Amino acid sequence: MSTADVWHYLLLGLWTTLRLSLASMGVALALGTLIGVLRVSPVPPLRWFAAGYVEFFRDIPLLPVLVFVYSGLPKAGIRLPTSFDSAVAGLGVYTAAFVAEVVRAGLQSVHRGQIEAALSLGMTFPQMVRLVLLPQAFRMMIPPLGTVFIALVKNTSIASAIAVEELLYQAEFVIGRTFADWPMLIAFLLYLVITVPLSGLVNFLERRLRILF
Amino acid sequence: MALRLSRMALLGFALALVLAACQAPGGATPAPQKGRAPLAPEGTLLRKIQDRGKLICGTKYDIPTFGYLNPKTNQVEGFDVEICRAVAEYIFGDPNAVEIKEAISKNRIPFLKEGVVDIVASTMTINEERLKEIDFSVVYYVAGQSLLVPKNSPINGLDDLKGKRVGTVKGSTSEKNIRAISDQKGLNIEVVLFDTYSEAVAAMDAGRVDAVTTDDIILYGFVRQEPDKWKVVGGRFTVEPYGVGVKKGEEELLEVVNTVIRELKSSGRWKEIYKKWIPSDTVPEPPPDDWRAVSQP
Asked: ipTM strictly over 0.85?
């Protein structure tokens, strides 16, 4: 295996890591926002469900979640076609718990007067959340969401255990062939290719939205 | 002065008596031999073993078919342990006159050289490189890479793997071999890599891969655990002749080990041991003695 081949596999891995990160972020953001809103819902059973969800996924390690989705669920007849889909589902569901906490904190940080105003206008709870609370809470949520998403990018490496051909998987693959150590160092650096710009984007958004405030 | 000298002499004499008394039961006069090995010359490892009254044998503890510390019984068991016990039976007339020590791949050769163990039976393949370091007995088992598939799988061998997904472990020899075979035979196998064989088998249980490949003795370990679920198919497509390792230059001990293995093979006991530990439908003929005669299939 030539040096060019090593780079070929590592860059393939980087591309898969990037796709895996973006897809999982999408799932985590959608599901996490829903769970976060349910956390402050006026209906107690919904609140309890959301609290249970957050507590459960926040308190278990990620690896068993991925292995469960990949190797466990098919036995119960729930079968996501590929290891990539399994990883997106596992990472998304897991990270949603952290997103939900950010969303809840954001919603609760909106001034009480806003809620009273929305209620006095006759808004329903969903209307109030969608039109009044979330737009204001979003600003507050940006920095902690950035932290959650950077953690998500790093967590994608665990998907190598269920044979997703992402960056760490490819690095281990080429090391098994070449017995060279340097591909692992390159893989570490390639994670920065995703996480550093992501950090930059978060900082940028934070600054932009603060001006609008 | 004379009095002092004689007192010291008396003291010395008394001390010598006490020391002799302490040594009397063991030491220079060994216990009568009940086994079949004649008393070996002084200074040989075999003599040291005979004087000690037990054999110290290195095996693995984590291979359910060959050397496995059974958590239920707290005993080490398997094919390799049977070999150790047969050697002990030959030397002492008692298969229990053996102490098993864990010898993993990394430390088994140093253990022999340093005398931590007398012999090593730990799934060790005979090759030229190792023959420079230690002596090997005649071949007692031929392992090789094979395929584990679900019991109801239509896969019967390599040729049935066309376009299939085959799981194995990252960086293993098995990974390289299956890729080479796939290229050579144009099978277009998709190799799926995991961190451990257990994870690969769990993925097969979920239908994520069609077969798992590595050395047959590891695959048979999974069959032993879940005989209703798995079977080993396709024969062996690599060859690993196993031998018992002995420290270089200990001809007497090596001869004993060779005699024991040859007798196991000719008397039919080898087949009994095979049947006991390897969950396979058929029992093969014992392997030839010469490792070079075990040709690549």
From this structure: no
Cα atoms in the Cβ-side hemisphere of radius 13 Å centred on A186? 19
Reported confidence tier of residue B170, pLDDT bands at 50, 70, 90: confident
| Interchain contact, A162 vs B167, CB within 8 Å | no
Residues from chain B contacting residue A71 (CB–CB below 8 Å): 199, 202-203, 205-206, 208
Q: Which residue of chain A has the CA closest to B201? A: A71
Q: Which helix (H) or strand (E) holds A46?
A: helix A44-58
CA distances from B168 to A72, A127, B235, B252 (A): 19, 53, 17, 42
Chain A interface, best mutation among B178, B198, B205, B208, by max A CB count within 10 A: B208
Provide the token pair at B237: 């497509």
Backbone angles phi, psi at A73, to 5 degrees: -60, -40
Strand partners, B213: B147
pLDDT in tens, A28-39: 999 999 999 999
Q: What is the pLDDT of residues B273-287, one digit of tens each?
A: 999 999 988 899 999
Structure tokens at B252: 């007497």
Q: Which of B175, B194, B205 sits opposite A176 (nearest CB)?
A: B175
The two tokens of residue B66 are 């060959």
Query: What CATH code would you report for A3-209?
Result: 1.10.3720.10
Show Cβ contacts of residue A26 under 8 Å, excluding neighbours closer than 6 positions.
Answer: A92
**Is pLDDT above 60 for A110?**
yes
B230 to chain A, closest Cα gap in Å: 16
Burial (0-12, 13-18, 19+ Cβ within 10 Å), B284: exposed
Contact list in B for residue A74 (CB cut-off 8 A) is 206-208
- Is B171 within 8 Å of chain A by CB? yes
pTM of the model as a whole: 0.76
